[in-house]
C-alpha cells in the first residue's frame, strides 16, 4: 500500500461540539447497525464470511487498543481497569460489561456484554456474530496485560442467550 489515507487517529473523530452544535454527539442505534451490517455485507461479498469476520475482529482490536491508549493507559490495577472500563462502556452506551471469571496468572477471562451495541435484539441465528467485540476485548486485554490474546464469543444474543459471553485466553507467545 503506497499511501494511507485513513490510518486511524483521533483527529478522525473530530470536534463534535463544533461540528454538531444542534444534533450533538449521539445518533440512533439503527443507523449505527445499518452502517455496520452494510459494511459487513460488502466485505463478505468481496472476501467471504471468514475473512470478513477476520477484518471485523481486526478493526475491533484496533478500536480496543486505541480506546485503551486514550482512556486507560494510566491504570495499573486489574480491578481498577475493569471498573473504569465498565463505566466507560456504560457511559458510551456500548454494553453492560461483567467479568465472570478472571485468572490473571494464566491469562484466562470470561466476560459478558449485555445490551450490546451490535447484536442485542437481533433474530436468532445459527452462529455468534460479535466478531468486532471479540477483537475489541482482545485489544483492551492485550493493552492492559502486554500479552497477545485470542477472544472467542461463546454465547450471543443471536444464539439464544440474552447476553454475549466471551472467553479470552492469552496466547503465551
Ligand atoms: Zn453477540
Tell me the helix content.
40-55%
- What is the global morphology? globular
What is the count of helical runs?
5
Spell out the helices and strands N to C. HHHHEEHEE
Major beta-sheet overview: 4 strands, antiparallel
Layout of secondary structure:
Blueprint: H1 16-19, H2 29-47, H3 49-71, H4 78-91, E1 96-103, E2 108-114, H5 131-145, E3 149-155, E4 164-170
Antiparallel strand pairs: 1-2, 2-4, 3-4
Helix pairs in contact: 2-3, 3-5
Bound molecules: zinc ion.
Any overview of this molecule?
The protein contains 5 helices and 4 strands, in the order ααααββαββ. The chain has 173 residues and is of the alpha+beta class. A 4-stranded antiparallel sheet has the order 1-2-4-3, covered by helices on one side. The protein has helices spanning 16-19, 29-47, 49-71, 78-91, 131-145, and strands at residues 96-103, 108-114, 149-155, 164-170. It starts with 15 loop residues before the first helix and ends with a strand. The longest helix has 23 residues, at 49-71. The site of zinc ion (ZN) has 10 residues, from loops.
Short description:
The chain is α+β, with helices and mostly antiparallel strands and 173 residues long.
